[in-house]
C-alpha cells in the first residue's frame, strides 16, 4: 500500500491517523517527517518559489502535514491549523461574517466562545442569540427565513456540549440551518474526529480546540477549522494568512504526534468514563450524573446513533450545592484540579469559577453544584477509588 493510499479516505481511521500527511522524507528515508523551523524560504529568482513555500506565516511543511491529517480524519477537503481554538473560531467568524450578521448559538456554549462572540465581535457588529439546540422549532424561529433581514448567518453548536453534556441532532440542525440559508458550525472538541464526523452528517464547518483530545497530552495549545466548500475554504485560508494566528512548527509537530494515537486513546477514555459514570449513579451526595453513555441521559439514543462511543467527559452535580462541589474538587489525588480537558491524565474542573466564569450572571451560567471530569487513561479502579475518597468527605 502506498503512503498516499494509506492516508486516503478509503482507509480506516487509525490508518489515516498514522499515515495522512506523514510521507517519509525522501532524502534520508526518515519515517517521521522532519520538523521545519524555518521562518523563510530561498527563492529561485524574484517570484520563483523553489518549494512552494515563501514565508512561515503563509505556509510551513510541518503545519501543512497536520492540516492534511486533520482533513483526512474529519472527512473534509480543507483544514486550517491555528494557535488556539479561539483563534480558529475568530478566524472563521471573520472570514464568514460581516457587521450586521447574526450567530445563533447553543445556550450552553463554552464560555470562551460566548465571550469571543459577544464581547470581542459584538462591538464589531456581530449579533448573537443563544437558544436551546434541542428545541428545533425554537432554533428555526431564531434562525429566521432565508433572504430576509436579520436571518442568521451561522448556527453554532457543541455536541456533546461543554459542560452540560447535551446532545444535538446534527443532521436535523443542518436541515434547519440550510433551509434558512445559514451555515452550520459544529464544535467537535468533546467528541473528537474519532467519535463523530459532523461534515458527514450535514454540517458545513467543524471547529476544534486541538489542545484537547487531538493533541491529547496537555502539552500544546492549538485550534483547527475543517470544511469542504472550496469558496468558504478560500476565505478561511485568506484570514489565516492575512491575520497570522497560525500554529507554530513545534505546536504542529506535537499535535500531529498526538493525533496519531487518537483512536486508541479515545477507546480507553470512553471505557473509563463509562465505568466511572455508572459507578457515580446513586452515590450518596450525587444529585445527577451527566454522561450520554447512561441509558437515562436524554440524548443517549441520539448519541449512540451519531457517535462511535460516548467519550471521556462526565459532569456531576452534587446535592450539597456549591460547597459540596468545591469540597470534592479540592479533595482528589489523581484527578488534578485544572483548566482544559482531553489529556491522558484525569482532570477536574469547577466550571462556574473556571472555564465558564465569563458567562456568570447570563442565561449560559453553569450550575454552581457542577463539576466537570475529564477522564484520563489511568486504571479505572484507581480513578474510582480517588473519587470515592473525595466524595466520602461530604
From TrEMBL:
The top EC class, named as a word, is: transferase
Annotated keywords: Pyridoxal phosphate, Transferase
The signal sequence is none
Instruction: Report which superkingdom the organism of origin falls in.
Output: Bacteria
Molecular function GO labels: cystathionine gamma-synthase activity
Could you identify this protein by its name? Answer: Cystathionine gamma-synthase
Tell me which CDD domains the record gives.
CGS_like (cd00614)
User: What EC number(s) are associated with this protein in UniProt?
Assistant: 2.5.1.48
Protein family: Belongs to the trans-sulfuration enzymes family.
Xref: PROSITE patterns: CYS_MET_METAB_PP (PS00868)
Q: SUPFAM superfamilies recorded for this chain?
A: PLP-dependent transferases
Organism for this UniProt entry: Sinomonas cellulolyticus
Enumerate the cofactors the protein uses.
pyridoxal 5'-phosphate
Kindly give the InterPro entries that the UniProt entry links to this protein: Cys/Met-Metab_PyrdxlP-dep_enz, Cys_met_metab_PP, PyrdxlP-dep_Trfase, PyrdxlP-dep_Trfase_major, PyrdxlP-dep_Trfase_small
Return the NCBIfam families for the record.
Answer: PRK07811.1
Cited Pfam families: Cys_Met_Meta_PP
Amino acid at each position: 500500500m502506498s503512503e498516499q493510499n494509506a492516508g486516503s479516505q478509503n482507509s480506516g481511521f487509525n490508518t489515516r491517523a498514522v499515515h495522512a500527511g506523514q510521507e517519509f522524507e525522501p532524502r534520508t528515508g526518515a519515517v517521521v517527517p522532519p520538523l521545519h523551523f524555518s521562518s523563510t524560504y530561498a527563492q529561485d529568482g524574484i517570484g520563483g518559489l523553489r518549494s512552494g513555500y515563501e514565508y512561515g506565516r503563509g505556509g510551513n511543511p510541518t503545519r501543512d502535514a497536520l492540516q492534511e491529517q486533520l482533513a483526512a480524519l474529519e472527512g473534509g477537503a480543507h483544514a486550517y491549523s491555528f494557535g488556539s481554538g479561539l483563534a480558529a473560531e475568530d478566524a472563521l467568524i471573520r472570514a464568514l461574517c460581516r457587521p450586521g450578521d447574526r450567530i445563533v448559538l447553543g445556550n450552553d456554549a463554552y464560555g470562551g466562545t460566548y465571550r469571543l462572540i459577544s464581547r470581542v465581535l459584538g462591538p464589531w457588529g456581530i449579533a448573537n442569540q443563544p437558544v436551546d439546540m434541542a428545541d428545533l422549532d425554537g432554533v428555526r424561529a431564531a434562525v429566521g427565513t432565508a433572504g430576509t433581514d436579520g436571518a442568521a448567518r451561522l448556527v453554532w453548536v457543541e455536541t456533546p456540549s461543554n459542560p452540560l453534556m447535551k446532545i444535538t441532532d446534527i443532521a436535523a440542525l443542518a436541515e434547519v440551518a440550510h433551509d434558512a440559508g445559514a451555515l452550520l458550525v459544529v464544535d467537535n472538541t468533546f467528541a473528537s474526529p474519532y467519535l463523530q464526523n459532523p461534515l458527514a452528517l450535514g454540517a458545513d464547518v467543524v471547529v476544534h480546540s486541538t489542545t484537547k483530545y487531538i493533541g491529547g497530552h496537555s502539552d500544546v495549545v492549538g485550534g483547527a477549522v475543517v470544511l469542504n466548500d472550496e469558496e468558504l475554504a478560500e476565505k478561511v485560508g485568506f484570514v489565516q494568512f492575512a491575520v497570522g494566528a497560525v500554529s507554530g512548527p513545534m505546536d504542529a509537530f506535537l499535535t500531529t504526534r498526538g493525533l496519531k494515537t487518537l483512536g486508541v486513546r479515545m477507546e480507553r477514555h470512553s471505557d473509563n468514563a463509562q465505568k466511572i459514570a455508572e459507578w457515580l449513579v446513586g452515590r450518596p451526595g450525587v444529585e445527577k450524573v451527566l454522561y450520554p453513555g447512561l441509558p437515562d441521559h436524554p440524548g443517549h439514543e441520539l448519541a449512540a446513533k451519531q457517535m462511535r462511543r460516548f467519550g471521556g467527559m462526565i459532569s456531576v452535580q452534587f446535592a450539597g450545592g456549591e460547597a459540596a462541589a468545591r469540597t470534592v474538587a479540592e479533595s482528589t489525588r489523581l484527578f488534578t484540579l485544572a483548566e482544559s480537558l482531553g489529556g491522558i491524565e484525569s482532570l477536574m474542573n469547577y466550571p462556574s469559577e473556571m472555564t465558564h466564569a465569563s458567562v456568570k450572571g447570563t442565561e449560559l451560567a453553569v450550575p454552581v453544584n457542577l463539576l466537570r471530569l475529564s477522564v484520563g487513561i489511568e486504571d479505572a479502579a484507581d480513578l474510582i477509588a480517588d473519587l470515592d475518597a473525595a466524595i466520602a468527605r461530604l
